[in-house]
């Protein structure tokens, strides 16, 4: 059954996942094992995406499938079971209303085992700082910018987080962002896509 659940996530079988997870639980499967199989499935989905074997739509459906499966699992998992890597604050920076990329990263990060706090789009630097202060146990933040015109706001947000004395790992991404820009503004990590972001976040959280 666990293998079947893994396949359902990998192939994005949205309509079948909830029933399959419930069936596994009813059959005495360990909820943590079921979660691990889904996380493993998302790892291979991420790898396929990196190799251009699948594209954003397939990755999105797989992530949504996992989310549905996790919703069935949640009541059966002990505290911290879903967010075993801790909290991850994410948002699109001020002045930018793009959310498809950010949403996909949020889903992949959640699938990787983080508890995601999604601040949405057009998020002012103060809101990031405020949220991080309100969640002192959160050690990671992801900033997204899709417009060249909002890259300055990303830089300002990184600066505000650092000036607030918050010791968090700052990840950045988005179409116009490069490793060079991430280095220039003092971000801790840059990734080119959602699958890479999830892998990187796990590495940094370990």
Structural class: alpha/beta
Strand order of the largest sheet: 2-1-3-4-5
Count, helices: 9
Quote the distance from N terminus to C terminus. 29 Å
- Principal-axes geometry comes out as globular
Q: Measured on Cα atoms, how large is the radius of gyration? A: 17 Å
Topology pattern, helix = H, strand = E: HHHHEHEHEHEHEH
Low-confidence stretches: none
Mean pLDDT: 93
Strands, count: 5
Q: Estimate percent helicity.
A: 55-70%
Q: In this structure, how is the largest beta sheet organized?
A: 5 strands, parallel
Tell me the strand percentage band. 5-15%
Short description:
With 206 residues, the protein is α/β, with parallel strands linked by helices. It has helices spanning 2-10, 14-26, 31-50, 56-73, 100-111, 125-134, 151-163, 179-185, 194-205, and strands spanning 87-92, 115-118, 140-144, 169-173, 189-190. Helix 1 (2-10) packs antiparallel against helix 2.
């Amino acid at each position: 059954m666990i293998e079947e659940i893994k396949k359902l996530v990998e192939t994005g079988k949205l309509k079948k996942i909830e029933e399959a997870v419930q069936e596994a639980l009813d059959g005495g499967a360990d909820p943590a094992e079921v979660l691990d199989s889904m996380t493993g499935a998302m790892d291979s989905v991420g790898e396929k995406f990196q190799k251009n074997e699948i594209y954003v739509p397939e990755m999105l459906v797989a992530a949504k499938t996992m989310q549905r499966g996790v919703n069935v699992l949640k009541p059966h998992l002990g505290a911290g079971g879903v967010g075993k890597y801790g909290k991850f604050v994410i948002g699109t920076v001020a002045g930018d209303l793009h959310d498809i990329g950010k949403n996909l990263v949020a889903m992949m990060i959640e699938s990787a085992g983080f508890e995601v706090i999604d601040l949405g789009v057009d998020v002012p630097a103060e809101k990031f700082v405020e949220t991080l202060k309100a969640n002192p146990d959160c050690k990671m933040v992801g900033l997204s910018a899709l417009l060249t015109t909002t890259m300055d706001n990303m830089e300002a947000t990184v600066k505000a987080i650092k000036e607030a004395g918050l010791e968090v790992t700052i990840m950045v991404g988005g179409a116009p962002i490069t490793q060079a820009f991430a280095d220039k503004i003092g971000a801790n990590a840059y990734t080119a896509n959602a699958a890479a972001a999830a892998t990187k976040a796990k590495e940094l959280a370990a």
